[in-house]
Amino acid sequence: MSIGRLLLYIVLILISTPIVVMVLFLVVASFSERLVYGLVPTRLTLENWSFLWRPIPWGLEREYIWPVLFNTLLYAGGSTFLRVLLVTLAGYAISRISFRGRTFVLAFQMMG
Fold this sequence. Notes:
Blueprint: H1 3-30, E1 56-58, E2 61-63, H2 65-96, H3 102-111
Antiparallel strand pairs: 1-2
């Protein structure tokens, strides 16, 4: 293994370690009875996840979380599908048609 690759791995590990620790803390805290300062909870509980099975207050009424989640997934899935469709068509057109400013359009598409 070359020195450059080793340095790259070290930098990637240093960048990703805090993110992994924060996500691990978030998961542990969600199963803990009260706020835990560390990664070892005093007692495990599912009480923090009980909103999945009972109505939650939503404005003036109580509603289950599942319709809200379904609406979110429907909106995100639909917008992702449209984005992929449009970008695929634009990519095909950019690859086949030669025009002035093609490099700029391709770079702009790659950024967005």
